[in-house]
Amino acid sequence: MRKARSNNNFIDKTFTILADILLRVFPASQQEKRAFSFYLNGLSAQDEGEYAEALNNYYQALQIEEDLYDRSIILYNIGLIYSKNGDYLKALKYYYFSIFINPRFTSALNNIAVIYHYQGIKAAEKQCFVLSESLLQKATFYWTKVVKLDPNSYIEAWNWLKTTRRIKL
């Protein structure tokens, strides 16, 4: 297991130092600190493209972490890894776990919409128009939630919803 980030980047080193200080002074139980340590190691491995190691750390953190908000973030990061590797069904599963815990997690909602949109476009290219429309309706559902929760962000989602006339303003 990695103790610190191996990048020589100033920001990475600063983050590592701050995280180590936080772990020492953070008013938390040893169990909470251990979960946070696994989470940080997962972030570091993910940042370096070491996805198997990142997943291992995130799964370890999930076994320990009790805070629901923190669990939703860990689940989201697991979803990011599966999405990055093209395993969209597993990514969706973890994004759904994340929003089950934190229904206002706009990043997870957005990523769900992005996957449905991508799959909808792919289905249209294969001339599976009924499937395509079904997937695009799901993308519409999640992007509509996103822009209602965070109207000043996700400009691409706003633009797609407006140009396809899928949202009423």
UniProtKB/TrEMBL annotation:
Q: Which InterPro entries match?
A: PSI_Ycf3_assembly, TPR-like_helical_dom_sf, TPR_rpt
PROSITE patterns in the record, alphabetically?
TPR
- Please give the GO cellular component terms listed in this UniProt entry: plastid; thylakoid membrane
Q: Where are the TPR repeats?
A: 35-68, 35-68, 72-105, 72-105, 120-153
Its topology with respect to the membrane? Answer: Peripheral membrane protein
Q: Does the keyword NAD apply?
A: no
Q: Which UniProt keywords apply?
A: Membrane, Photosynthesis, Plastid, Repeat, Thylakoid, TPR repeat
Coarse class of the primary localization is membrane
Q: Name one GO biological process term.
A: photosynthesis
Q: Where found in the cell?
A: Cellular thylakoid membrane; Plastid
The UniProt family comment states: Belongs to the Ycf3 family.
Checking HAMAP family in the record gives: Ycf3
Q: According to its UniProt entry, what is the function of this protein?
A: Seems to be required for the assembly of the photosystem I complex.
Protein name according to UniProt: Photosystem I assembly protein Ycf3
Q: Which gene encodes it?
A: ycf3
